[in-house]
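Margin note from the TA: students keep mixing up input and output lines. Inputs are the sequences; the output is the structure of the whole complex. Example:
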Amino acid sequence: MKTLLIDDERLARNELRRLLAKRSDITIVGEAANADEARVRIAELGPELLFLDIQMPGDDGFALLESLESPLPQVIFTTAYDEFAVKAFEFNALDYLMKPVDPVRLTAALDKLQRQPEHSSGAPAPAERPSRLAPDDKVFVREGERCWFVELKSIRLMESEGNYTRVHFGDVQPQLFRSLNAMEERLDPRSFFRANRRQIINLAWIDRIEPWFSGGLLVYLKGGLKVELSRRQAQAFREQMSL
Amino acid sequence: MDSVSANSVPVAEIGLRQQAKERLYVICQMGGWGFWFVLGVVISLLFSKSEDHRDPVSVVTVVMVMPTLGLLLTHYTRPLISRWGWKQLGWRLLVPRVLASSGVLSFLWSLLQYGIIYGVMRMPWTAKVSPLVVFTLTWIQGTTLFVGWFCVYFFYHLFDRYNRSEIERLWLASSVKEAELRALKSQINPHFIFNSLNSLRALIDENPDRARQAVTQLANILRYSLQSGQLETVPFEDELQTVNDYLALEQVRHEERLRVRLEIGPGTLGLPIPPMLLQTLVENAVKYGIAPRPDGGEIAITARCEHDELHLQVTNPGSLAAGGGSTGVGLRNAAERLRLLFGARATLDLREDPPGRVIAEVLVPFDQESEAAVRDSAGPGSLHDSGGKVGRTEEKAALYA
C-alpha cells in the first residue's frame, strides 16, 4: 500500500517510518512537512494511505483533507493530544493514533483499513483517476467541531449555497467545501439527479413521487425532505427513469 | 489591541461598591440624626410645661436645629477624614484626634445652636442657671455625640477594610489554587508533553545522548510545574531554568524552525516572580509565533532590572489580530495573579510592535526586603539543585545568545 507520511516534525516522521518498517504491506512513498507539500506529493505519488498529523503550520490536517479531490486516499490521523480532534472522531469511523504511537494500536489501525477492491487496486494516478465517483467513495466534510468521512450513497440531498454545498445525510447537514456544479461533474448520473438549479438528489433515497403544478413533479425523499422538479427537469427525470 | 493590564480588571465592581457605600452613608446619616430629631420632639412634648405656651411649630424648629447642625457638621467633616488619612491611623493616634475634633465640632455645634435659637429666633431664656453652665453642658453632651458618630464611622471602615482584605486574601488563595490546578492539568501544555515524548521515542535511536538529556529536561519541567504551584513566588532563576529546558525540548521538536535569543541582565536572577509566569509567555510565543509558521522564527527573552522593577520581555513573530483561537485566559490569569501579589504597579502587557512582531512585557516591582526574603527561601529548599546556580544559568544564557 503506497503510503505518505505528513507531519511537521522530522522526528515524528522518522518514528512512524521506523514503526512501519516491519510491515511488508506498507510502502512509504514519501513525506511532507505541511499541507502545501502534501498536496504536491499526493498529486505526484497518488498514495493510497495517508498518515496525517492534525496540527501543522499553515493548513491543518482537516483543511488539507477538505481541499483534496475525491476519491480520497485512506487516512489515519496522528495527534499528540487534541480534545478537539478526538471529539471530531467520535462521529465517524475515521481512525486516529495518539502520539507517541503504540505499536499495537498501529497494527490494529492498519488491519482495520478497508482493503482496496481488486479492480481499483494500484492507486489511480491523477490523470487516470476515474472522473466519476462511485457510491462507495467518500467525501470529507467538516462543520465546527465535527467532521465526517461520508460515503456518497448515504447522502440524500445536496443543496447549493453559493460556493458551498450543503449535504444532507444521517441527521446532519454540514457544508462541503465545493460548489454544487463542481460536485455534479464528479457524481454518477445513474445515482444522482440534478432536480433544479439548487438541488441534487440521490435516486436511491427517493420515497415517492407526486405530480406537481404545470407538469412538474414533487419528489419525497426518505427522511422527510421534499424536492420540486420543474417541468423541464421532470421530463428529463421521466426519461431517465423509464430506461 | 488585546492588552491585558494587571490593574484594570474590576473597574465596574469598584463603581458599584462606591455607589453602595454612598447609599449606606446617606441612610446612616439620615437615620441617625432623624432618630435624634424624633427623640427630641418626643422629649420636648412630654416635658414641656403647660405654662410655657410654646406653639408646636417653634418647638419642632428648636428641636430640629440640633440634628440638622449635627448632620451638616459631620457631613463636611467626612471628606477631611479621608484627606487627613485618618482611616489608615492606628487607634493610639486616632483616639486623641477623635476626641479633639469631637470637642471642636461640639463647640461649633453648641455655638451655632445657641446663636440660632437665641440670637436669630430670639427665643426667651427660660433656664434657671447661667448661660455659661448650660453652654458647657451642651458642649460636653455634643462631644459625646460626635465621639459616637466617629465610632460608628470608624467601626464601619474597620469592618469594611477587614472584609476587603479577607476578600483579597480569598482571591489570592483561589488564584493560587487555580494556578496549581492549571499546573496539573494544562499549564504545561499536554500537547507539548506528548509531542516531546513522541520526538523522544525517535531520538532514542537517532541520538541516544540527546535523548537522555531530553528525559532529564522533561522531568525538570514536570517537577517544576507540579511543585511551583504551591508557591506564591519563585526566584526568576528557577523559572528561567525551566524555560530553558522547555525551549531546548521545543528545539528538539521544531529543530531549525525555532531559534532562541536570551538577554539576561545582571541582578535579575534572584528577583521574585510568580511561578509559571515567564513559562506561560514563552509557551504562548511558541504556540502562536513559531508553530503556525512553516519557516518558524526567533523567540527573544530579555530580562533587566530598572528602577526597582524587573522588566521581562518575550518577543515572537506574529500578529495580535490573527489571534489563532487564543482566549487570552492564560494571560488574564497571569495578570490578575501579578496584581494580587505585587499590587497595581505590576503589569502585563501584550502588544504588536512593529507590525509582525508580538511583544509580551511584564513589569514586576520589587523592594530590597522581599528580594532578600526570596533569596533566603530559595536557598537549600530551592526547586532546582543549587550547585553554582547563577553561573550555570548565565553560562546557558551565553550559549543561547
